[in-house]
């Protein structure tokens, strides 16, 4: 049954994308209206951001409080800067011990074999 739902979900997503494309070209649907969800904005130059924020009175510490750093990105940064893999793991373990990194509940899904 799960295999069927997976296939149907993929099919439905294809239909949804096609319907949006057609609506963007001007088609109208009786029970639906085309609505923009906006676009994502992303910081493209972190150094300039920090400099500009300082001009507005925002400290590095305040910026870090609102920054969202993933553990993967931090680990890759350490590795890219020559930190051996063993030390990267030690660093991440130390972060967990000091409650710098927290874990959410384990997530689950079903996937095809």
Radius of gyration: 22 Å
| Morphology | flat
Structural class based on helices, strands and sheet pairing: mainly alpha
The residue fraction in helices comes out at 55-70%
Major sheet characteristics: none
The proportion of residues in beta strands is under 5%
| Unreliable runs | none
Distance between the termini: 14 Å
Overall structural domain count? 3
Tell me the series of helices and strands, N- to C-terminal: HHHHH
Annotation field: number of helices? 5
Give the overall pLDDT as a whole number.
91
Total count of strands: 0
Structural overview:
- With 113 residues, the protein is an all-alpha fold.
- The protein has three domains: 37 residues; 26 residues, no CATH class; 36 residues, no CATH class.
- Helices cover 56% and strands 0% of the residues.
- The chain has five helices and no strands.
- α4 runs antiparallel to α5.
Task: Give the SSE map.
Blueprint lengths: L1 H23 L21 H10 L4 H7 L4 H10 L4 H13 L16
Helix pairs in contact: 4-5
Concise synopsis of the structure shown:
With 113 residues, the chain is mostly helical. The chain folds into 3 domains: 1-37; 40-65, no CATH class; 70-105, no CATH class.
Provide tags for this entry.
113 residues; mainly alpha
């Amino acid at each position: 049954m799960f295999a069927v739902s997976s296939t149907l979900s993929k099919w439905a997503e294809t239909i949804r994308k096609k319907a949006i494309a057609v609506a963007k070209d001007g088609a109208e649907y009786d029970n639906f209206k085309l609505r923009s969800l906006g676009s994502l904005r992303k910081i493209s130059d972190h150094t300039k951001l920090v400099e500009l924020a300082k001009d507005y009175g925002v400290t590095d510490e305040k910026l870090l409080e609102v920054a969202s750093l993933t553990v993967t990105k931090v680990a890759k940064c350490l590795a890219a800067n020559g930190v051996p893999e063993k030390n990267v793991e030690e660093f991440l373990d130390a972060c967990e011990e000091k409650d710098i990194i927290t874990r959410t509940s384990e997530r689950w899904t079903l996937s095809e074999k």
